[in-house]
Structure formats: structure tokens, C-alpha cells
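Ticket 4471: requesting a sanity check on a complex prediction with nicotinamide-adenine-dinucleotide. Repro inputs:
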Amino acid sequence: MFFAYPVKDRLKGKVCVITGAASGIGRACAIRYAAEGARVVAADISVKGGEATVAAIKASGGEAIFQHTDVCEPAQLDALLTRAIDAYGYVNVWHNNAFKSVFKTIIDQTLEEFDETMRVSLRAYWYGAKIAVTHMLSHNGGVILNTASVQSYFGEPGFSAYQCAKGAILSLTRSLGVDHAPGVRAVALAPGFIHTPAHDGIPPETIERVKQSIPASRGAAPEEVAALAAFLASDEADYITATGVIIDGGYLAM
Ligand SMILES: NC(=O)c1ccc[n+]([C@@H]2O[C@H](COP(=O)([O-])OP(=O)(O)OC[C@H]3O[C@@H](n4cnc5c(N)ncnc54)[C@H](O)[C@@H]3O)[C@@H](O)[C@H]2O)c1
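Returned C-alpha cells:
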């Protein structure tokens, strides 16, 4: 059981945009950001899930809006930034988190699946960072968070296109952090095995194999990733940039 201890007002005055906010890690981060005092712009291709995230935030007394966004469309990411600025004046945390992929080896993976993985899980991160950094540099700076993965660091069988995207996200993060310090920080969150609907497409034998190799002997709740994300988004993490932070129950150490 995971206990959440949101730090009151740690993100007060922050405006946080997060993609993939309708489910899993994105929803948990949106809720946590709001619980720590941020105003949140939750973006997702799923209207139902995105609105449910915003409803959960409002029910707890937080402030949030939903913007329907297909992150594959740059114009919709432009509209997301504009909506956030129109609603709240500025953006100082932009969290690229949306994800879609089919997990296969390169033999079985189609070019179409590869292209879609790259559009959602890499190209959109790059374009989101591009417009957010440009905005932040003229508005007192900010933070780009990119949800990466333990697969940014090592190989796991059966994740060809996904692993390409996650490796590149860590490189993108380093590049952003190096190019735009000190005004903008960039940090990749690298989760291990987190219980979300993303696992629906993974064969049960793969899930079992992964679970057995985690020293913590369990997968994590999305809220555990959100607790880390809130710290990384905050000014307390001001010296953390151009790097990844791993949250994996010790998986990578095995
Ligand atoms: N769950 C894990 O074990 C795990 C491990 C490592 C990394 N991650 C990463 O965490 C992030 C969140 O994954 P999750 O596990 O919460 O998955 P999830 O499937 O629960 O959530 C993904 C969200 O992305 C949204 N999305 C998909 N395509 C979109 C599009 N074109 N435009 C906008 N939104 C879109 C979905 O609607 C969904 O709400 C991903 O980047 C994933 O790679 C997850």
C-alpha cells in the first residue's frame, strides 16, 4: 500500500501542463500537481478519461481544466499551450507523458506501428518541448518533464519501437537541459513496472518475468511516480537537470 503525502503549496503559483492525463501515470501526476497547489492543464486524446481526471482534481478542491489533444498533431499542441496561457497566464511545467505503442520485436513490428510509436512517444515530446521551452524562456523559465522508462537505460526483449522512443527521450532530455540551462530544466522520469492500463498489451509471461526480477518484489502504483514528478517539477529540484531519475524498485540494479 502506498501512502501519498502531497506537500502543501510546494507547486503554488505553478501552471502544469501534462499530456496523457486521462489514465495511469499522467492522471496520478495531474492529481498530485493540483494537490500541491498547481493549476493543471490536463491533455489527452480521451475526452472521457481527461474530464474524469479534472473532475477528481476539482472534487478535492484543486484547479484544473481539460484540453482535448491528439499529441500527434502539432497544431493541437500549439492549441494546448495557447489554452493554458489563456486560462492561467503562463506555463512553467510542461510534462510530456502520453504514450501509445505495440510491443513486439523488430521482426514482427510493422513500419506503421513504428511510425505511430514515434509520433506519440517521441515526435510529440520533441514538439511539445520546443513550444514550451520557447514560451518559458520569455516567461521566467520552467521545467520540461519527459516520462521515459527504465528501457531508456537497458534492453528488454520484445519492445523494439517503444525502446527506440524511450532511449531517444532520455537523449532529448539531456539536449534540452544542456541547451537551455539555467532558464529551463529538463528531467526524464524513468519508471520501472507501474500498474496502469499500459500493461494490457504485454504478454502475461513477460509481466511475470519482469515482476520476479524486481528487488522490491512488486510493481508500483502510478501515485508513487507522481510523488517523484511533483518533487522534480518543484523548485526544490532546482539542481536536477539534463538527466533521468529512475523509479524502479531496484530493477535496474539486478
Ligand atoms: N506503466 C508502466 O509500467 C510504465 C513504465 C515505464 C514508463 N511508462 C511510461 O509512462 C507514461 C504513461 O504511461 P501509462 O502507463 O500511464 O499508460 P496509460 O496507457 O495508462 O496512459 C497513456 C495515456 O496516453 C494517452 N494517449 C495515447 N495516445 C495519445 C495521443 N495521440 N494524444 C494524446 N494522448 C494520448 C492515452 O489516452 C492514455 O490516457 C508513458 O510515457 C509510458 O511509456 C510506463
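Notes from triage: The chain has one domain: 15-246. Leaving this open until the requester confirms.
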